[in-house]
UniProtKB/TrEMBL annotation, chain A:
This is Ribonuclease. The RNase H2 complex is a heterotrimer composed of the catalytic subunit RNASEH2A and the non-catalytic subunits RNASEH2B and RNASEH2C. A divalent metal cation binds at D34, E35, D142. GO terms for cellular component: ribonuclease H2 complex. Manganese or magnesium. Binds 1 divalent metal ion per monomer in the absence of substrate. May bind a second metal ion after substrate binding. Belongs to the RNase HII family. Eukaryotic subfamily. CDD domains: RNase_HII_eukaryota_like.
Automatic annotation (TrEMBL), chain B:
Residues 32-92 form the Rnh202 triple barrel domain. Gene3D superfamilies: 1.10.20.120, 2.20.25.530. The RNase H2 complex is a heterotrimer composed of the catalytic subunit RNASEH2A and the non-catalytic subunits RNASEH2B and RNASEH2C. It comes from Anguilla anguilla (European freshwater eel). This is Ribonuclease H2 subunit B. Keywords: Nucleus. Belongs to the RNase H2 subunit B family. Residues 95-227 form the Ribonuclease H2 subunit B wHTH domain. Residues 235-290 are annotated as: Disordered.
């Protein structure tokens, strides 16, 4: 799999895709959606779609695609090669959401959570297939969040396409299994050959699976913590694993949308404390002229 | 979430991010001596404020800090927690001399050499103001001048001072207009970009704004005097906006109840059956309340603690 498009800039989201088989533009097709790398604290999350004509589903079965989790890495690689060879009737597309994209989405002021991010990635890929002229009639999805809600959302978004959202869809429908293989292979490649944009010197690439409960991953996170910057972009800052270590070990950083309570917050909000209303004599200190207060300019009494 | 670490407020800091007038740096080059930060009496507040003397004390500058929450600097390969931006801008030394001249005028009321006037134990650096290039020439703006024995003597003159300040206000108005500063009453944000020019800004708004700005450099008394001369009407102070006190006015008419409570005594008034309690209220009612104080107990006056 050629990931060079993503590797050119792994801080943003990237789409990779196969050529669209001609037959898919003329015959009714089914499409499977699956994701890889939802849980890890390290590396990208990859969304994959696979599509083929409905009447060629059996050929897909013949390739013996199965749920990617039941396969070894080598088996997955082989299966992906077979899928790629079947390009006369099978097409695929991937959306690689970089860890940086995930961090910045989830930690921005208007929170954009992982489910919304996942749904939008899936929708984007289906729309891509439609835009390419694939005659979509059936879509099968492994669920993210409540299956019914997700199915309603997708059905509404794509009228005229029969959407089936099902937990464990990757083991039930071969087209979803195929999508899961594409996604998983892409994620594996991206993680094993991660190009760090940061100058980390001799970086230790033995970070294990990337899942928060992997002791290797945890010790890697502890080792690569920078007190000021935290982590390289490879790490999802929004994961509680990363957050906890940052809170404990790194320099505290305060943002203006941090939640804080008490008098200090009230003072920041420019609210007078309740107590100030009970003081009898208000000291008539002159207020700074608004030219200065509007510009946040203050006199200093020392450096 | 883990408890956030508190910002320690007095971190060591030996670096500042400064925007300074070119003259500060240029003067240093020619003279060789460095510009120096000093504490002087702030003419508006009478407390210490930070100023800077250019090389050779040729000029005096005031130091203002742009200070907003949640800011830090990245400088080269380091981080500076103090996110302030210091502005060093020239200030007319006469503003800083004025409190001393006024004080001497009040206490002695006679002509004196300015060196005698400018004595301050708390701010010994104030004598350096006399070395500033503009100082001596501008003294007659605020004081009567006499010459004798090759020395000059000065006596504070309020008329002259106010006249001088009036000129300052006029020049400030000009500057405000030139730099498109919004002086209108309704405008709160200076970063808010409006498509149309403010149309209903009046000359008085400029005058009032300029007066306020100049008042940042003079005592409150002088500010009021200047306001009179500029014929700016007083604006309602925030005190007027407070709600009226709740005390009832004393009157001669007999006091009557505002509401008729006797209706509750009539036969027609039947007590309503107590409302059904919600599930949460029921579970609360079941709680063991022994040893708990009633809510009102917290508001009654504190029982005096007995001395042992």
């Amino acid at each position: 799999m050629d990931l060079s498009d993503f590797e050119a800039d792994n801080s943003v989201s990237c789409r990779l895709s196969s050529a669209i088989p001609d037959i898919c533009r003329t015959t009714d097709c089914c499409l499977g959606i699956d994701e890889a790398g939802r849980g890890p604290v390290l590396g990208p999350m990859v969304y994959g779609i696979c599509f083929c004509p409905i009447d060629r589903k059996e050929d897909l079965k013949a390739l013996k695609v199965a749920d990617s989790k039941t396969l070894t890495e080598v088996e997955r690689e082989n299966l992906f090669c077979k899928l790629d060879e079947a390009k006369s009737f099978v097409g695929w597309a991937l959306q690689i959401l970089s860890p940086n994209t995930i961090s910045t989405s989830m930690l921005q002021r208007a929170k954009y959570n992982l489910n919304a991010l996942s749904h939008d990635a899936a929708i984007g890929l289906v729309q891509y297939a439609l835009d390419c002229g694939v005659q979509l009639k059936e879509v099968f999805v492994d669920t993210v969040g409540p299956a019914e809600k997700y199915q309603d959302k997708l059905s509404q978004r794509f009228p005229g396409v029969e959407v089936t959202v099902r937990p464990k869809a990757d083991s039930l429908f071969p087209i979803v299994s195929a999508a899961s293989i594409c996604a998983k292979v892409a994620r594996d490649h991206a993680v094993t050959s991660w190009g760090f944009v940061e100058d980390l010197g001799d970086v230790d690439t033995d970070y294990g699976s990337g899942y928060p409960n992997d002791p290797k991953t945890k010790s890697w996170l502890l080792k690569h913590l920078d007190p000021v910057f935290g982590y390289p972009q490879f790490v999802r800052f929004s994961w509680s694993t990363a957050k906890t270590i940052l809170d404990d070990k790194a320099v505290p950083v305060h943002w203006d949308d941090d939640e804080e309570g008490g008098e200090k917050a009230a003072a920041r909000m420019n609210c007078a404390s309740m107590l100030s209303y009970f003081g009898k004599s208000r000291t008539s200190a002159r207020e700074t002229h608004r030219f200065f207060s509007e510009r946040r300019l203050q006199s200093l009494d020392s450096l | 979430m883990a408890s956030k670490k508190k910002r320690s407020l007095n971190a060591q800091n030996d670096r500042w991010v400064v925007i300074a007038a070119d003259s500060v740096v240029d003067a240093a080059k020619s003279d060789g001596s460095d510009p120096v930060f000093v504490r002087l009496k702030n003419p508006a507040t009478d407390v210490a404020s930070l100023y800077l003397f250019g090389a050779g004390d040729a000029d005096v500058y005031e130091v203002k800090a742009f200070d907003e929450d949640y800011r830090s600097w990245f400088i080269g390969q380091t981080v500076q927690r103090d996110g302030r931006l210091l502005y060093i801008t020239p200030v007319d030394p006469l503003y800083l001399l004025l409190p001393y001249i006024i004080k001497a005028g009040k206490e002695q009321g006679k002509f004196q050499p300015v060196e005698q006037v400018l004595m301050d134990e708390d701010f010994p650096a104030c004598r350096r103001l006399l070395r500033c290039a503009r100082t001596r020439a501008s003294l007659p703006q605020v004081a009567e001048e006499k010459e004798g024995n090759g020395q000059r003597f000065y006596k504070y003159s309020q008329e002259k001072t106010v006249e001088w300040l009036k000129k300052k206000v006029d020049r400030t108005v000009e500057a405000l207009k030139k730099s498109n500063i919004s002086v209108g009453g309704g405008v709160k944000s200076t970063t808010y970009i409006r498509t149309k020019q403010e149309c209903n800004v009046q000359e008085e708004d400029y005058l009032r704004y300029a007066h306020g700005l100049i008042s940042e450099y003079i005592s409150e008394d002088l500010s009021k005097e200047l306001q009179k001369i500029l014929q700016l009407p007083e604006v309602s102070s925030p005190k007027d906006l407070e709600p009226p006190s709740k005390k009832r006015k004393v009157s001669d008419t007999p006091v009557e109840a505002g509401e008729d409570y006797t209706k509750f005594n009539g036969a027609s008034f039947a007590r309503k059956p107590p409302k059904k309690m919600s599930a949460a209220q029921k579970s609360l009612a079941k709680a063991d309340k022994t040893g708990m104080k009633s809510m009102s107990a917290f508001f009654s006056p504190k029982a005096k603690t007995e001395k042992n």
